[in-house]
Amino acid sequence: NAGVTQTPKFQVLKTGQSMTLQCAQDMNHNSMYWYRQDPGMGLRLIYYSASEGTTDKGEVPNGYNVSRLNKREFSLRLESAAPSQTSVYFCASSEAIGGVAGDTQYFGPGTRLTVL
Amino acid sequence: AQSVTQLGSHVSVSEGALVLLRCNYSSSVPPYLFWYVQYPNQGLQLLLKYTSAATLVKGINGFEAEFKKSETSFHLTKPSAHMSDAAEYFCAVSDLGGGADGLTFGKGTHLIIQP
């Protein structure tokens, strides 16, 4: 049982390049999330998916797109990377449909992205 | 709307001393409260969570936290610090008003253990 897995672990991009961060969970969870972590800022929600087939914007969605490919997988795409998107990106999942209050979120190991 | 304030971006304690990490929350409805720990270069791991069953919550690795509604606080404690406790700690809040996105995180407290 791997929990939440993310690929790649590290990535360096040049400004304007695009890439997709992959996330998968094997816990049969319904809700999935993408966060970014910046020094002194905690974690901020980028996008979330309350169930298979639905996605919604979080606190900081600009410059990103997401796809809930199926119940297991939730990808994050940067169409034209900018230096301000240099960050550590975490994917998380939780059991309930709709991210019910109190539902525990389980996190992946993160992707460290640098945009030059 | 919900928010979390963690007092002290860095806390330093001696090995064997009491650990106290402070968290205050703002929520218009009864909250659910979480503490997560992040070890260097790793993801977040749940330490404990409060869901209204009991005000004193025990978690993993000897940590516990007490929910105090009158003080809107959920401070994390451990009686005796160990070198392996050195990590970043995040307090988070979730309530019905938060919607499907669930968690709002504090900015984190870096715990340093002095030998």
Short structural summary:
Chain A is mainly β. Chain A is 0% helix and 50% strand.
SSE arrangement:
The complex is a heterodimer of chains A (116) and B (115).
Chain A: E1 4-7, E2 10-13, E3 19-25, E4 31-38, E5 42-49, E6 56-57, E7 64-68, E8 74-78, E9 87-94, E10 106-107, E11 111-115
Parallel strand pairs in A: 2-11
Antiparallel strand pairs in A: 1-3, 3-8, 4-5, 4-9, 5-6, 7-8, 9-10, 9-11
Chain B: E1 3-7, E2 10-14, E3 19-26, E4 32-38, E5 44-50, E6 56-58, E7 64-68, E8 73-78, E9 87-94, E10 104-105, E11 109-114
Parallel strand pairs in B: 2-11
Antiparallel strand pairs in B: 1-3, 3-8, 4-5, 4-9, 6-7, 7-8, 9-10, 9-11
What can you tell me about this protein's structure?
The complex is a heterodimer of chains A (116) and B (115). Chain A has strands at residues 4-7, 10-13, 19-25, 31-38, 42-49, 56-57, 64-68, 74-78, 87-94, 106-107, 111-115. With 116 residues, chain A is mainly β. In chain A, strands 2, 4, 5, 6, 9, 10 and 11 form a seven-stranded mixed sheet that branches. Chain A has a four-stranded antiparallel sheet with strand order 1-3-8-7, with no helix packed on it. Chain B is mostly beta strands and 115 residues long. In chain B, strands 2, 4, 5, 9, 10 and 11 form a six-stranded mixed sheet that branches. Chain B has a five-stranded antiparallel sheet with strand order 1-3-8-7-6, with no helix packed on it. Chain B is globular and about 40 Å long.
